[in-house]
Known about the structure:
alpha/beta; Rossmann fold; Helix Hairpins; 4 domains; 23 strands
Amino acid sequence: MWRHEIYCGVFDLELLRQAMISVLPAGTDPDPGVPQSELKLSGQSAMFALVLDDEGRPVEDTSVISSCAWATGRLFDPGPSAPGWLDGFEELDDAFGAAIDELTATTILYGSAARSGTTDEQRPGPEAGADSGSWQRLVGEILGGAAVGAVEALFGGVVGAALQGATEPLVRRAADWAAARRPAGNQEDNGDPAGGSSVPEQVPGNSAAPSEGYGDGSGPRALGLADLVALTAQIADLCGVRDQLRPEVIRVRSTLVYRPKDPQTKAAAAAPFLNSLLPPDLARVAGAVGKGIGPALEAYLTEHDAVSVRTRTDVRRKRGAVLAGVDPELVPSGRWPSPAQYPLALSQQFAVDRMLADRAGTEGGMFSVNGPPGTGKTTMLRDLVAALVVERAAVLATFDRPGQAFTGPAWRGKDRQGKHARFVARLDPRLTGFEIVVASSNNGAVENITAELPGIDALGEHWRDGPGHFSDLASALLGGRAWGLVAAVLGNKTNRKEFSDRFWWGRLPEKEAEARSVAGQPPLRGMQAVLTDWIPPRTPPGGRRAPAPADRTGPAGPTEPIPSWGAAVAAFRAAQAEVERLRTERARLASALAAVESPSAGQRIADLEAAVRRADQEVTAATTAFEQAITAADGARSAAAGAEALHRAATAHVPRARQELAAARADLSAARELATHHRDYVTALTARQDAPPVVERGLRGGLRRLLQSSADRQAAQWQQERTQAEIAQLLVQQRTALDDSVAEVSSAVRAEALAEDRNAQAVTAADEAAAGLTAARARQEATRARQAAADTAVRRARRAAETARHDVRAAIAELDGQHQALQQAARPLPSLPLGWQHLDEAVQELGSPWSDETWSTARSDLFLRALDLHRAFVAGTAKKVRGNLQVLVELMAGTNGPLPDEEVEHAWQTLFLLVPVVSTTFSSVGSMFARLGRESIGWLLVDEAGQATPQAAVGALWRARRAVLVGDPLQLEPVVTMPAALQRRLLRAYGVDARWLPSATSAQAVADRTNRYGTYLPAPDGDEQVWVGSPLRVHRRCEDPMFTVSNTVAYDGLMVYGTASQAFPDGERDGLLPSRWLNTDDPTRPADAPWGERDRRAFEFVLDLLDRHSVGVERIRVIAPFRALVAECKKVCRGRAGWTADLLEERCATVHRAQGKEADVVILVLGGGRPGAREWAAGTPHLLNVAASRAKRRLYVVGERSLWATLPHFDVLAAELAEFDHLRDRATWPPDGE
């Protein structure tokens, strides 16, 4: 039967862009630096859409209003600065749906003209009579004045009420309209006795012809053209964009769908895809913030200022950390079964190991990988998938019986009709958290991954003859030969339906079913049939099983063999044991290697050698001290001998000094006695001399005097005088003698003083000599002790030095022994990274430490045994698995009955047991996983995250426990159609940091900030550096010069050349047509002409030579930075052989559209370009990086070299790409006939 999608009010997206620009302040550049010609939007959208059944009746819950049109109107009134400026959309959407229901429940007589077309006869005629205004009243009450005016215009009458209420503010107008159409049960009590709008009375059926296809009273009537015009006009008026968007066109898309088997089944369909599904999903996440947002989203939303820069490990600087990151203990047990001789490169293995190792202590978080073009992002992710499948299998292997993996009672319910029972069994929580969802902003990226994983080419030759994993179903889903059902493309409703048809029901399009039959293949059996086959038949009460129905296998092909649980567990455990045995061997060698080559091992030798040097220094110091002690001892002995001699001399001098002092004192005493004698004598003489003559007194004296004669008296006188003279003479003599004796006394006193001084000096000298002797003897003893101590120190130092030398020799010998053992081990194990630290960095990156063929093979075998175990588990629990998947399939089709959200999660978890990986775009996450909440998915793998806006990933991250974002922020930024100036205005209105500007950052850049492991690269727009997470470095896509151009302009030499050389254009003509720049300098070209005649001729010349050398269109891509150039190139290609319309559209495009694609040959058409446009193209390395890295074998540039070669980044292109010269290149660019 037919089903119709109706798109009403179709408008050009360019009008939408112009409307957004018009709200900016005058003079604002909406997108600074970007040429306006590159900003024009192509494509269209619509004001609203809905689905009609085969009779033209609306299908329930399919009407949808354009949120884009709504928001555009709100930009004008009330504007982003007004609080709640976007409020009311949900209410309007609900009210509009109610209005449609009311409209289709009401018979409206537009007049006979409405049934037959849009000619002049359509306007209401006089036959309507008194009821000619009834349809206006009904439409006006149900929809509004704008709807009435539009229908009047359709019929050619006067608009009349078309502008009714148009001057009312838009916010109030829309709110009032929605409130007036809210169902009565939801009306707020506003004091109006009428209680809101009521359903208009039915117009009498005989007053005029009803609208075409109206109902017979059993349900809603069909919608006619007039109804659609009315609805379009009213919603345009309510959104306030009638003048800006001019939404006047109505389009219908009709498709054939299956008619329900049960005629009573209510028609159901998904709403048309008109709005982005991100806003409602973001609103759901925002509403759940209070309950936590999960570790992945929490890490993603880390504030810029809270990012810890100090904990970062730069993998280009700290090479030891990279080698430690691929230690055998960290390598996962599972590996993708790619050729064992081609393991992951160093940076790929490091990233996988870190993704898994960083879960320590938590099951959540986020990791980012910077994946420049051609560095093996998908190859890396395949190994992560294998690792997680093996981890889950390890849990499965712990169950004795498969049924033990389901815990607790199953949920039980009914299908939508309430006729058939439905149940959901709950998996053991240990088996959850391994679900893998690949998401991206574009279908191509996610479909590439999910198409590559199941393909037979993803397996190495060694494993292609194995049993496969539901390979028939996988091939049906892939549309080509597949080896295993390991990934599926889901996402939008079309993909989900196709998946359900093929995977569950085994339904194929007629052509594919016929092709299978022609190829001799049996009909495809869907998983529903396979699981039914695996369910054991019930045993009747008698104990004998009933025979299987004859048609159990049915016409849909033979049954899948039932795997044995016990055999699968045993095989898995044996493979696991082998992997761990080989891991243990390599871990032991890794420990030995660490002892030999790790910095700590070298440091140990260095420390021991330093100890030897210190010991030698100590010996030298001790020897010097000993020699100094000997010298000091000798000096002390000499000093002691001298002190003894001095002491003896001083001691000997003391007696002499004492004798001299005694003699001096004796002399003094004698002198004093003599002087005293003389003094006394002088005194006596003086006394006699001065005494008067002696007269004898008394009688006798008197008689004598009388008796003396004169002679006697004269004699006596003379005698007296003579005596006096003698006395005087004696007195003189005595006085002289006295003076002499006094002089002698003085001399003796002086002699005595001198003697006393000499005696004192002698005593002092003797005392000092004694003290000196004592000190000298003490010093002598001290120096002897120091000499002995120094001698002991010398001997000790020499022993320590010898011990240190012995330790060095022993350590070196031990290290040499370990090194020799490692060299022997490296012969059969070339992946052992012996001498790795001394290798060139490029050689390090190209290597694969520890990933030898033996271990790689064992790990891949383990992954395949893990899939076998999963298959055996599904077979052993087929009934429960079928029940869970039945509910999920109905959920994806929208035909399920009531189902709790918790059971939805359990049903999804069951699907991931059979299909480990599913893919979706971010825009479909909210619809596909609408019933899944926070941390309901184990792993989210975001591919091409550099092309995703930051907000696009939020819903998926919220549902994930662990996220890995893979992308390249140095390729082209996310495409955001909103002008950058308007984005900034909205950021300011909401107080958001400018660093979250959607057009200036990406999900990859946001995730990179928080990754501990990465490196710094030059920022594309300045002198600063940008941190990128765990980079993949080995490039295996492009040959030179494309590799060098990309690596130089964007990656600061980060990438390592690993591209295998291939013949071009083929083995016989290898080396022809090397990459060249075909210079089209033309002085006569107008400055604003991007394309000229020389460009056309050069472009045709390249195409001709490629065609002449059998390089087909499928090997070529033509890209250009500007749309005008692409248009010119299409004109040239359109008339050439092989360029079909599809190939022309797909292989001739702008650089932006070519991102994510590749070809053997890329023709980059630059032309002349307008001056501003050239500066824009060269403003960052992104555009040239993408352009160069699309070409695998050859790159040809067509354009004015003098104009482009002076620009940033393009100067590198000019330096690396030689200019084509007809004469010089004649040998490799042979002309016709050569």
